[in-house]
Design goal:
The complex is a heterodimer of chains A (252) and B (340). Chain A is an alpha/beta fold. Helix content of chain A is 34%, strand content 23%. In chain B, β8 and β9 form a beta hairpin. The N and C termini of chain B lie far apart (90 Å). The chains are: A alpha/beta (252), B alpha/beta (340).
Chain lengths: 252, 340
């Protein structure tokens, strides 16, 4: 695995970028990495079903300890039925004014902490968050979310040479200041930005969208031209096909 | 704060792009004495019509320039203190040779700025104390303080506190009589413009003597430099530059020439006619046949001659008809009863 210690930002605008999350989840599981999935949007079975189409079994991965999942939809309710003293990763749901995400960071840290068990268990640790924008909807401030990602980056990327992949939504032309601050702040922290955009002309059956790839923080300052690429894509049942702009087989 | 619905179904229909907004805070940057603030990128007056813009600031990042300026200071023999909030020490020192790294003191606010780690790795007192401590560290000789980044500090400290502390850091400049010129402290700050509102941006730019806003065109970076000297008019200047891999700053005199859009030599040009189910090519014979074809309504001289001499060499057409059993051949003209 040549890419280590990197923060990859997945961003979608006017389209659904969750296919990228499923891709990275199956990619890292197949690459034998220890994965922590903070799943705030969908249930575990959803990821499992899609994972099976992509060739990985999440239940098996969870059983053998390769995958740790925080199911936000399920455990969010637990917060209210547990004694207050016990820390919970989604503690902020209970607070009157949502403070910081330190408990969530603590959960991630404990889940991915390299264990000195003697045997070479897994390759680098990976954190996947789906997604960060929902935290804003739950009352967390953008700076608190940025701090959470900062700490994940410092621990998972810098210290343990692992990778972090986060999905965030671009609110587009709706003037959502907090979302913009979060997206821009994350963009500055990221090494790689994958931006899935709907086509400007609207919905198309054969071309589902456009993917822009932007490399940031290169080791050497290089010219801008070398640092970004654009592809168009079509999502199929078990894969995604990419092609250069305007080169979809359906269009030619 | 009330929760606003942020989850929206992904909309397939495109909406017309909003008109470009004119929120261009213009801050002055001055290289040289006193405090200079670098801002990532151009004000958001340019709207990219690709259905969503990666803000320019993300593409034209300012850390390379900050590192280039840090390198320049170090090569002049100054001590450089870096308050690092956004990147690790390892990453910041990358690209510098040992000569520069030995003059660089990195105050690490990256690893544990908010004291979340159990065995605390944080700098005591948190970000504010770390910032204030920089003042005391610059003991003797000229020094440069680099803040990476001001945006992080602005997010975690109240704006007035930050401004007061920054002012105190560079206060030696306000009283040039007290300190000899060699003892002056230069403060450089990196700011990500699009993360803040106009209020904090305005406050910071009023503190800065120089403001450098980065942008670029066609792969070439440029800096808008605004200098504010006391009792003088602000001067504005555009400087094209590039930063070499070893973080040396190379200034260019002219903007890049308008180059023809040429295909990138690295990406092979794709022939769109290769994988089609129908044939778009013409063979030589087909091409000749196509070229020699006269179009039906094309009035050439041959056609003109043929019309002027009717019947010559032109046989009238015959219709051969074999009636079958069911045909009723009536010799009468069906239009006979028409009174035309």
């Amino acid at each position: 695995m040549s890419v280590q210690g990197k923060l990859t930002l997945l961003c979608d605008a006017k389209t659904d970028g969750s296919f990228l999350v499923h891709h990275f989840l199956s990619f890292y599981l197949k690459a034998n990495c220890k994965v922590c999935l903070v799943a705030l949007i969908q249930s575990f079975s959803h990821y499992n079903i899609v994972g099976q189409k992509l060739g990985v079994s999440l239940t098996a991965a969870r059983e053998r300890g390769q995958l740790v999942v925080l199911e936000g939809l399920k455990s969010g309710v637990d917060v209210f039925f547990r004694p207050r003293e016990e820390p919970h990763p989604l503690q902020f749901l209970r607070e009157a004014n949502a403070g910081d995400l330190q408990p969530l960071y603590a959960f991630v840290r404990d889940a991915l902490q390299p264990v000195d068990s003697g045997e070479a268990a897994w390759r680098c640790p990976v954190l996947l968050v789906d997604d960060l924008s929902v935290l804003l909807s739950l009352g967390v401030g953008p700076v608190a979310v940025l701090d959470f990602v900062h700490y994940c980056r410092a621990t998972v990327c810098q210290e343990w040479k692992g990778n972090v992949v986060c999905l965030v939504h671009d609110s587009g032309d709706t003037e959502d200041e907090e979302s913009d601050v979060l997206l821009n702040g994350l963009s500055h922290q990221s090494h790689l930005i994958l931006r899935a955009e709907g086509l400007a002309t609207g919905f198309c059956k054969d071309v589902h969208g456009q993917l822009r790839i932007l490399w940031r923080r290169p080791l050497q300052p290089t010219t801008h031209r070398d640092r970004s690429l654009t592809y168009q894509y079509k999502i199929q049942d078990k894969s995604v096909s990419f092609f250069a702009k305007g080169m979809s087989p359906a269009v030619l | 704060r009330h929760l606003s619905p942020r989850l929206r179904p992904s909309e397939g229909l495109a909406r017309p792009p909003p008109p470009p907004t004119d929120n261009c805070p213009n801050g002055p940057f001055r290289p040289g004495h006193g405090k200079s603030v670098e801002r990532d990128v151009v004000p958001t007056c340019v709207y990219q019509h690709s259905g969503g813009a990666i803000p320019h600031s993300v593409e034209w990042e300012g850390r390379s320039l900050l590192k280039a300026l840090v390198k320049k200071s170090a090569l002049r023999g100054e001590q450089v203190h870096v308050l690092g909030c956004e990147v690790s020490e390892e990453e910041f020192r990358e690209g510098f040779d040992s000569n520069i790294n030995s003059r660089l003191v990195y105050h690490d606010l990256f690893r544990d700025p908010l004291s979340w780690s159990k065995p605390g790795k944080a700098l005591p007192g948190g970000p504010l104390e770390a910032l204030r401590a920089l003042d005391k560290r610059t003991v003797s000789g000229p020094a440069t303080i680099a803040l990476d980044s001001l945006s992080w500090l602005l997010h975690h400290l109240p704006c007035p506190t930050l401004c007061q502390t920054l002012h105190a850091l560079s206060r030696q400049d306000s009283c040039p009589g007290d300190t000899p010129p060699g003892e002056q402290v230069r403060v450089l700050g990196l700011l990500h413009e699009e993360l803040h509102g106009p209020g904090p941006l305005g406050a910071l730019s009023s503190l800065a003597q120089t403001e450098v806003t980065l942008s670029g065109m066609m792969g070439q970076a440029s800096a808008q430099i605004l200098c504010r000297r006391p009792r003088q008019r602000p001067t504005h200047q555009t400087q094209w530059f590039s930063i070499l891999p070893d973080f040396s700053l190379e200034l260019q005199a002219e903007p890049p020439l308008e180059s023809q859009p040429r295909s990138d030599p690295h990406t092979p040009s794709v022939d769109p006619t290769t994988h089609l189910t129908f044939n778009l090519h013409l063979s030589k014979k087909e091409r000749e046949a196509k070229d020699s074809l006269t179009l039906p309504f094309q009035f050439s001289s041959e056609k003109q001659q043929a019309l002027l001499r009717p019947g010559l060499g032109q046989a009238t057409s015959h219709i051969f008809y074999e009636p079958d059993a069911y045909d009723d051949l009536d010799q009468e003209d069906p239009d006979d009863d028409l009174d035309v």
